[in-house]
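Below is a filled-in request sheet from our internal design queue. Each sheet records the structural input a requester submitted and the sequence that came back. We keep these sheets so that new team members can see what a complete request looks like end to end.

REQUESTER: design group, bay 2
PRIORITY: normal
MODE: inverse folding
CHAIN LENGTH: 131
BACKBONE (tokenized):
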């Protein structure tokens, strides 16, 4: 499995600091050092990549996330993305939808995501992956 870091913030600028989350999460995992069953995690064997984004250009960032995610899905059967805020979900899921013939995904979220859509997708609105 490949782990992909995507340090992104959303267009509404409510999530400043989230761009540091992938590195912080992996650093915390190194401190823990093992799984919940006590198996030691060999970080040298983890396949960690990063999608670099331009935090000042949401359109470009969404494009980069989409294109890189699509390439990752074409090469790997399993990938684990660590964000930033979860506005990264939209371009990642669009890429997944383009590659998989019968895509199926379940997302559990802590809030209702019921805002009216804006110019760019964020994590706080109702949106569709329909093309």
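RETURNED SEQUENCE:
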């Amino acid at each position: 499995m490949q782990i992909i870091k995507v340090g992104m913030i959303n267009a509404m600028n409510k999530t400043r600091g989230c761009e540091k989350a992938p590195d912080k999460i992996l650093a915390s995992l190194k401190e823990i050092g093992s799984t919940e069953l006590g198996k030691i995690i060999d970080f040298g064997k983890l396949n960690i990549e990063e999608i670099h984004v331009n935090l000042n250009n949401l359109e470009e960032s969404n494009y980069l996330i989409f294109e890189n995610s699509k390439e990752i899905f074409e090469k790997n059967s399993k990938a684990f993305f660590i964000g930033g805020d979860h506005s990264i979900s939209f371009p990642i899921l669009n890429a997944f939808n383009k590659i998989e013939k019968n895509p199926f995904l379940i997302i559990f979220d802590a809030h209702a995501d019921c805002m009216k859509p804006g110019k760019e997708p964020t994590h706080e609105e109702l949106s569709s992956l329909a093309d």
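SHEET NOTES:
- The mean pLDDT is 80.
- The two ends are 29 Å apart (CA to CA).
FILED BY: M.R.
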